[in-house]
Amino acid sequence: MNADANGPRSVRGKSVLFCAECSFENPVSEGWLVVSDGDERTIVCPECGHVADHRTERSAPAPRAD
């Protein structure tokens, strides 16, 4: 399926996060519970408690030895 570049655009910004369990939606900076622990970050839905995202900080790539 191809998107029509001249078609109507969604009014939602790209930073909107959606809960797969209860359909809550908001920008990550507005309303979501963000829990940081060391190098881990978990985003939890404030409506139902579903974990919407869990990530660990990726370490920087090691320099190449030439």
Automatic annotation (TrEMBL):
The record, for Pfam families, names: DUF8106
- Per UniProt, residues of the DUF8106 domain are 14-55
**Name by which UniProt lists this protein:** DUF8106 domain-containing protein
Origin organism of this chain?
A: Halorubrum persicum
